[in-house]
Each structure stands twice: as structure tokens, then as C-alpha cells.
Write a structure and sequence with these properties.
Blueprint (H helix, E strand, L loop, with lengths): L4 H25 L3 H4 L26 E7 L3 H4 L5 E5 L8 E4 L2 E2 L5 E4 L3 E4 L5 H12 L7 E6 L3 E6 L5 E4 L7 H7 L12 E7 L2 E7 L19 E4 L3 H9 L3 H18 L2
Parallel strand pairs: 8-12
Antiparallel strand pairs: 1-4, 1-7, 2-3, 5-6, 8-9, 10-11, 10-12
Length: 266
Amino acid sequence: MPKRLLPMKLNFFKFKILLVLILGLILNSCVSRKEVVYFNNAPSQGSVSVSVSSGIEIQPNDEITIRVSAPEQDAAAPYNLTKIVSEVEGPQAATVDLESYIVDEKGMIHFPELGNIKVTGFTNIELARMLEERLRTYIKDPLVTVRILNFQVSILGEVGSPGTFTSTNYQLSLPQALSLGGDLLITGRRDNVLIMRKEKGEMTYNYVDLTDAGITQSPYYYLQQNDVIYVEPNTGKRQRAGILSTLSTYLGLASVAISLALIFTR
């Protein structure tokens, strides 16, 4: 083999190595549309059915308010426990608000006229309907509204702002909750979002696919009190965490890249 051909073959070999490295980086960085876009199979026109929320299930230690209204408001007044929020001097009346109930460990509250009643096992909507039925004995056409003041969910993992969030919305959907957490990062896995929920005294683990428009029909589309949402990292993020976990690794890769660049620019 002529000596002048040897450097050419070596340079061509180095070029092939660099080309393989570049192609590997490109392929590793490619992300399909399905992996990052929500509701991929949603129809371009028409509608998708949504699960019906029956409200938030009340749990021990919840703080709730109960507002009772009726055509004769004076008759409903004894059932609305109030507290003074601020006192002012002069002819202007003091500001009052509804007093809240704290659900005890047995799931009970003490309600005017009805006494001790069990509220756990009901959602806020179901409890309102039950109280309306029982109050019809005492007042005409009662209308009851139950709100949970300490409704909260926790969002962990690959989101913009993980944390625990309190909401006054008793129909908080999974997309709305994720928006509170700053939405999913591009490194978050959208097709396998974990929702941890306490049901009948046991913790359950449920996975939902945000890339599927059918998620709106899932029983986990609307969240419950104390749900925990976890967004796991996608494959690329896990690989980078394993390979590029230290500063020395980054410096080593930079050194290799600079060395290869110098070789091919000589």
C-alpha cells in the first residue's frame, strides 16, 4: 500500500467515527409528535365525551362550609353558622362570613338541629343533596351548598413548579392541576402519568395517558382531595441523568469534541 494513501485512509476512518457520533446524537435527541402533544387522537371537528364529576369526597380533617338558603331566608338563618371577619365602628355593619366545620377522625360534624351527622363517604354534592332532604322537615325548599376549603393536590416530577396546591374549584381536572404546576416539561413522560389516590382507606396507583383524547372519560380526569400526581422523566432524560450526571462527564465530552474538531481542521 502506498504510504501517501495511509493518511487518507486514517482520515476517512476518523470521519466515519465522527459521522456515527453525530448521527447518534441526532437520533437520541429526536422526539416524536405523539410523545409531546396532548390529546393526539382528538377529532378535528365534533366532540369527545367527558366523565361526569360527582364532586369531591369528604375525608377526615377536611374543613368545609355549609350554606343553607331558602325562599324564607329567616327560616334558613339558624342553619348558617357565621363568624365576624372584621368589626367596624359607626353605622356600618360588621363583616361576617360562614363558620367552617372540621370533620373529625370518625368523619362526623355537629350540624344545627340535626346533631352529629356522618359526612365522610359523601362527596360535597352528595352531602348537599342529603342535607336538603333532611332539612325539608324544618324549612321549605332548602338549597344547600357544601364547599371544601382545604382541597389540595400535590404535583411531583417533571413539571415546571412541583408542589402542593390548594384549589377552591370542586371540579379540578388533571390538565387544570398540571397547569398549576407549570405544565409538563419537555422531559416529562406524557403517556404514563401516575395518580396516587386514597380510596376506601387504601392507596391506589393509577396511570393515565395525556396523549390520548379519551382521557376525558377516565375516572381520574377529575381529581379528588389529596391526590398526588407524579410525572416521570422520559427515556432521554433518564439516559442523560445516568450518563451525564457529573460535571466531569460534561467536561470530558467537551474535550473529545474539541479534539475531534482539531483533528479534522488540520
